[in-house]
Protein backbone atom coordinates (compact mmCIF):
# COMPACT_ATOMS: atom_id res chain seq x y z
CA UNK A 1 0.00 0.00 0.00
CA UNK A 2 3.01 2.32 0.07
CA UNK A 3 2.26 3.61 -3.46
CA UNK A 4 -0.95 5.22 -2.25
CA UNK A 5 0.42 6.44 1.08
CA UNK A 6 1.09 10.16 1.55
CA UNK A 7 4.52 11.64 2.15
CA UNK A 8 5.52 13.46 5.31
CA UNK A 9 7.93 16.35 4.70
CA UNK A 10 9.35 17.81 7.91
CA UNK A 11 11.46 20.95 8.09
CA UNK A 12 13.61 21.18 11.20
CA UNK A 13 14.15 24.30 13.27
CA UNK A 14 13.62 25.89 16.66
CA UNK A 15 10.35 27.63 17.57
CA UNK A 16 9.84 31.33 18.07
CA UNK A 17 10.82 34.54 16.28
CA UNK A 18 14.24 34.64 17.93
CA UNK A 19 15.32 31.57 15.95
CA UNK A 20 13.42 32.19 12.72
CA UNK A 21 16.37 33.57 10.75
CA UNK A 22 18.97 31.10 12.05
CA UNK A 23 20.89 28.81 9.72
CA UNK A 24 19.55 25.96 11.90
CA UNK A 25 16.01 26.89 10.77
CA UNK A 26 16.55 26.64 7.02
CA UNK A 27 14.58 23.36 6.88
CA UNK A 28 11.56 25.10 8.39
CA UNK A 29 11.99 27.93 5.86
CA UNK A 30 11.72 25.42 3.02
CA UNK A 31 8.51 23.92 4.42
CA UNK A 32 7.06 27.44 4.56
CA UNK A 33 7.97 27.81 0.87
CA UNK A 34 6.32 24.47 0.00
CA UNK A 35 3.16 25.54 1.80
CA UNK A 36 3.22 28.88 -0.04
CA UNK A 37 3.57 27.13 -3.40
CA UNK A 38 0.47 25.05 -2.71
CA UNK A 39 -1.58 27.98 -1.40
CA UNK A 40 -1.72 26.36 2.05
CA UNK A 41 -0.94 27.57 5.54
CA UNK A 42 0.49 25.54 8.40
CA UNK A 43 -1.94 24.99 11.26
CA UNK A 44 -1.33 23.88 14.80
CA UNK A 45 -1.50 20.10 15.09
CA UNK A 46 -1.83 18.01 18.25
CA UNK A 47 1.39 16.17 17.34
CA UNK A 48 3.34 19.21 18.63
CA UNK A 49 3.76 20.56 15.14
CA UNK A 50 2.38 22.95 12.57
CA UNK A 51 1.20 21.06 9.50
CA UNK A 52 -0.75 21.25 6.24
CA UNK A 53 -2.04 18.58 3.86
CA UNK A 54 -1.02 19.39 0.28
CA UNK A 55 -0.15 17.94 -3.11
CA UNK A 56 3.50 18.49 -4.02
CA UNK A 57 4.86 19.23 -7.46
CA UNK A 58 3.45 18.14 -10.79
CA UNK A 59 3.24 14.50 -11.80
CA UNK A 60 3.26 12.90 -15.26
CA UNK A 61 0.90 14.54 -17.72
CA UNK A 62 0.71 17.70 -15.67
CA UNK A 63 -1.53 16.21 -12.98
CA UNK A 64 -1.04 17.37 -9.38
CA UNK A 65 1.77 15.56 -7.60
CA UNK A 66 1.42 13.11 -4.71
CA UNK A 67 -0.41 13.81 -1.48
CA UNK A 68 1.82 14.97 1.32
CA UNK A 69 1.82 16.49 4.77
CA UNK A 70 4.30 19.34 5.21
CA UNK A 71 5.15 20.12 8.80
CA UNK A 72 7.44 21.92 11.22
CA UNK A 73 7.75 20.57 14.78
CA UNK A 74 6.82 23.12 17.44
CA UNK A 75 9.32 21.51 19.81
CA UNK A 76 12.95 22.51 20.05
CA UNK A 77 15.35 20.94 17.57
CA UNK A 78 16.73 18.33 19.97
CA UNK A 79 13.19 17.05 20.64
CA UNK A 80 12.10 16.72 16.99
CA UNK A 81 11.69 12.94 17.18
CA UNK A 82 8.49 12.94 19.22
CA UNK A 83 6.51 15.18 16.85
CA UNK A 84 7.83 13.35 13.77
CA UNK A 85 6.83 9.96 15.18
CA UNK A 86 3.39 11.29 16.14
CA UNK A 87 2.84 12.79 12.68
CA UNK A 88 3.80 9.53 10.97
CA UNK A 89 1.29 7.69 13.14
CA UNK A 90 -1.53 10.23 12.82
CA UNK A 91 -1.35 10.46 9.02
CA UNK A 92 -0.49 6.75 8.49
CA UNK A 93 2.75 7.54 6.68
CA UNK A 94 5.35 4.74 6.40
CA UNK A 95 8.87 5.75 7.38
CA UNK A 96 9.94 5.08 3.78
CA UNK A 97 7.94 8.21 2.86
CA UNK A 98 9.44 10.48 5.50
CA UNK A 99 11.54 13.38 4.18
CA UNK A 100 13.50 15.48 6.69
CA UNK A 101 14.90 18.85 5.64
CA UNK A 102 17.84 20.12 7.68
CA UNK A 103 20.84 22.44 7.67
CA UNK A 104 24.17 20.81 6.81
CA UNK A 105 27.54 22.38 7.63
CA UNK A 106 29.46 19.76 5.64
CA UNK A 107 27.95 20.98 2.36
CA UNK A 108 28.99 24.22 0.69
CA UNK A 109 26.55 27.06 1.23
CA UNK A 110 23.91 27.20 -1.48
CA UNK A 111 24.04 23.50 -2.39
CA UNK A 112 21.33 20.89 -1.78
CA UNK A 113 21.92 17.15 -1.54
CA UNK A 114 19.50 14.21 -1.22
CA UNK A 115 20.13 10.91 0.49
CA UNK A 116 18.42 7.99 2.17
CA UNK A 117 19.67 6.88 5.57
CA UNK A 118 23.16 7.44 6.94
CA UNK A 119 24.43 8.97 10.13
CA UNK A 120 23.37 12.12 11.92
CA UNK A 121 26.67 14.01 11.65
CA UNK A 122 26.22 15.56 15.09
CA UNK A 123 22.85 17.08 14.11
CA UNK A 124 20.63 17.00 17.20
CA UNK A 125 17.40 17.06 15.22
CA UNK A 126 18.37 14.01 13.18
CA UNK A 127 19.66 12.26 16.28
CA UNK A 128 16.31 12.77 18.01
CA UNK A 129 14.36 11.49 14.99
CA UNK A 130 16.55 8.40 14.59
CA UNK A 131 16.19 7.64 18.31
CA UNK A 132 12.39 8.04 18.26
CA UNK A 133 11.88 5.98 15.11
CA UNK A 134 14.51 3.32 15.80
CA UNK A 135 15.82 3.60 12.25
CA UNK A 136 18.03 5.85 10.13
CA UNK A 137 16.31 4.79 6.91
CA UNK A 138 14.43 7.96 6.06
CA UNK A 139 15.05 10.51 3.31
CA UNK A 140 17.05 13.64 4.02
CA UNK A 141 17.25 16.88 2.10
CA UNK A 142 20.58 18.31 3.23
CA UNK A 143 20.75 22.07 2.84
CA UNK A 144 24.26 23.49 2.73
CA UNK A 145 24.94 26.40 5.10
CA UNK A 146 28.74 26.20 5.10
CA UNK A 147 31.24 25.72 7.88
CA UNK A 148 31.81 28.05 10.84
CA UNK A 149 34.62 30.57 10.37
CA UNK A 150 37.82 30.38 12.35
CA UNK A 151 37.42 28.66 15.69
CA UNK A 152 33.69 29.28 16.05
CA UNK A 153 31.86 26.21 17.35
CA UNK A 154 29.39 24.59 14.95
CA UNK A 155 26.58 24.92 17.50
CA UNK A 156 27.15 28.67 17.75
CA UNK A 157 27.39 29.05 13.97
CA UNK A 158 24.09 27.35 13.13
CA UNK A 159 22.27 29.37 15.80
CA UNK A 160 23.28 32.62 14.12
CA UNK A 161 21.17 34.32 11.48
CA UNK A 162 22.20 34.28 7.86
CA UNK A 163 24.19 37.43 7.12
CA UNK A 164 22.53 40.30 5.22
CA UNK A 165 24.57 39.38 2.14
CA UNK A 166 23.51 35.72 2.40
CA UNK A 167 19.87 36.71 2.85
CA UNK A 168 20.05 38.78 -0.33
CA UNK A 169 22.32 36.76 -2.61
CA UNK A 170 22.01 33.12 -1.50
CA UNK A 171 19.12 32.27 0.81
CA UNK A 172 16.18 32.85 -1.57
CA UNK A 173 17.81 30.61 -4.19
CA UNK A 174 18.77 27.99 -1.59
CA UNK A 175 15.23 27.76 -0.22
CA UNK A 176 13.83 27.60 -3.76
CA UNK A 177 16.29 24.86 -4.80
CA UNK A 178 15.56 22.80 -1.68
CA UNK A 179 11.81 23.07 -2.28
CA UNK A 180 12.37 21.98 -5.88
CA UNK A 181 14.42 19.03 -4.60
CA UNK A 182 11.56 17.89 -2.36
CA UNK A 183 9.13 18.06 -5.28
CA UNK A 184 11.54 16.07 -7.45
CA UNK A 185 12.02 13.44 -4.75
CA UNK A 186 8.32 12.77 -4.23
CA UNK A 187 7.40 12.82 -7.93
CA UNK A 188 10.27 10.95 -9.66
CA UNK A 189 11.93 9.04 -6.81
CA UNK A 190 15.30 9.32 -5.08
CA UNK A 191 17.69 8.20 -7.84
CA UNK A 192 16.24 10.38 -10.59
CA UNK A 193 15.95 13.30 -8.16
CA UNK A 194 19.59 12.90 -7.15
CA UNK A 195 20.68 12.94 -10.79
CA UNK A 196 18.81 16.17 -11.38
CA UNK A 197 19.57 17.94 -8.12
CA UNK A 198 23.24 16.92 -7.89
CA UNK A 199 24.05 17.71 -11.53
CA UNK A 200 26.74 20.40 -11.96
CA UNK A 201 25.43 23.83 -12.88
From TrEMBL:
Listed Gene3D superfamilies: Peptidyl-tRNA hydrolase
Residues engaged in binding tRNA: 19, 76, 78, 124
InterPro entries: Pept_tRNA_hydro, Pept_tRNA_hydro_CS, Pept_tRNA_hydro_sf
UniProt keyword terms in alphabetical order: Cytoplasm, Hydrolase, RNA-binding, tRNA-binding
Site features described as Stabilizes the basic form of H active site to accept a proton, chain residue numbers: 103
Protein's cellular compartments: Cytoplasm
Entry EC no(s): 3.1.1.29
GO BP terms in the entry: protein quality control for misfolded or incompletely synthesized proteins; rescue of stalled ribosome
Enzyme class: hydrolase
Signal sequence, renumbered to the chain: none
Record-marked site positions (Discriminates between blocked and unblocked aminoacyl-tRNA): 14
One Gene Ontology term, aspect cellular component: cytoplasm
MF term (GO), any: peptidyl-tRNA hydrolase activity
Catalytic activity: an N-acyl-L-alpha-aminoacyl-tRNA + H2O = an N-acyl-L-amino acid + a tRNA + H(+)
Positions annotated as active site in the UniProt record: 24
Keyword tRNA-binding on entry: yes
Oligomer and partners: Monomer.
Family per record: Belongs to the PTH family.
Function, as annotated: Hydrolyzes ribosome-free peptidyl-tRNAs (with 1 or more amino acids incorporated), which drop off the ribosome during protein synthesis, or as a result of ribosome stalling.
Protein name, UniProt field: Peptidyl-tRNA hydrolase
Organism in which the protein naturally occurs: Phycicoccus avicenniae
